[in-house]
Every structure is written in C-alpha cells, then in structure tokens.
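User: Second chain of the day. Same drill as before.
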Amino acid sequence: MPEIPKQHRGSGLARGLGKAIERGALTLLLLVCAADLVSGQSIHGRILVEGDTVGVSDAELALIDSAGTSLLRVQSDSLGFFRIPTPGAGRYEILATRLGFASVRAAVELREREIVEVELRMAAEAILLDPILVVARRQIRPGTLDEFYDRMDRNRQRGVGWFFTRDEIERKEQIQIQILLQTAPGVFLQRYDGPPLMRHAAEYCSPIFYLDGVETSYREILLMDVEGIEIYRGRLETPSGYFPSDCGMIFLWRRPDWGNPFTWGRLAIVSGLFALLIGIASLL
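Assistant: Same format as last time:
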C-alpha cells in the first residue's frame, strides 16, 4: 500500500479501509458431505438440591424410552441446568444420578415439536420424593432461537452439521463472519472476481445463507449480533422444511438484543474507534 501523506492520514484511513473491503470481497465455498436430518423436540430443565435453590452440578441424566432402552446421556452444568434432545414425540423417563445423592427417576411426555421445561429434585439421602415438576411448555416456532438450539442439540449427537454458539463465537475473537466460518471443516474462502460457479465449479460452489430462517446475504450481518450459526455441507444435510441445496446452507441466528446500540460489544467497538481517532490525531 502506498504511504499516505501525514496531512491526509485521518481522512485517507477510512477511504483506504473501504477500498480494501471492496477489493477483498470473498465467496464462501463448501464441500458436499452426506447425512440426514429430521425435526424433533427436547427436554430442558434444572436439577436442584431438595429443599434448596442450589443446582446439582455434573449429574448424569439418561433418557429412557417406553421399551426401557437408554437412548442417550447428558450431564448437568455447574448450575444444574441440562438439555436433552429426544428422537420423537412420546413418553420417556429421565434417570438422574449423582454421587452423594439418591437417584431420581421421573416420567415426561412430549408432543410433536414441543420443548418441555422440567425441574428435578435430588435428595442427599434415599427417601421418596415427588421427583419432577413441569414448569412450562412451549412450541418450537420456526424462525426462532428455539429452532436453532433444538436442531443443534439433536444433530450434534448424530454428527450432522457444524455449529457455533454465542460462547464459541466470542472465544474465536473474530470480527467478520466470513473469517469465523472458514474455521469450520469443509468451509473455504476464495477471492473471486468472475461470475458465480465459473471457477472450480466441479469442486466448489456458494452456499445459501439464511437469517432467522429467511434467505439473506451474510455480508449485511454484524457478528456481534449473532447468537448462533449452523453449517450444513450439502443436499443430504438439508434441514427439514427447507429446499435442498447441493452447495450447502448456512443459518445465522441473531441475539435477542441485536441492534441495541448500548450492548457491551458495541460500546467496546466505539471505545476502540475513539482511542484510534485520538491516536491518529496525536500524529497530525
């Protein structure tokens, strides 16, 4: 890049960044892989110490079907919260065990595309308790974060797709979505000036982007507004209810507070820009 005269550094910096972004337009390219995807429901909840509001951490929860088969196991987090994806509607049992507590077994019935929120109580000694209380039920509505978390829970268990949660996005410390996405297996960035699908068309093509379930352009979204990302690398990974794409699909889900000018992320960026301007002014 040619050196900018000192007297024009302030105004030239913004123009230079704009031109660099225009020249650096990137096309995402995805490889195709095979898998299948179905819709479902899940159980969300928390395990509490009996007679207290303290959560039971690291408890093991087994999901058992009506035939008595253990389908999968999950662990509660440090506050006692857990999420269990289920393969379909029906009646299930949850068996919760934890060293130092009496095990708890409770029945839960789910309807189609439903999230059931439950509360389990574990006692420090083996006594009979009312083990479960259903505190809320809600439908999984398309185009909401419930759809993202429900699909992520089920497909991570099956090894289908690639997912970024808000915590994972923040740990990556990226400032652009396209840079973050290339950290996922099978996703490539390539500088491209010609018409779509003309370069290396036999190997790569551009995915379809969705924002909150609606097709969109990823370049219009700020990473600080993103709550989660789903990546599906081919036709056989296409989520139920969406038109299949050989080039893959990427779903972007916005945070509940997206667009709020007073979020910590936006304030941090504004503070950084302000410090940069002060530094530039000191050089003039």
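The longest strand covers residues 41-49.

User: Great, on to the next one.
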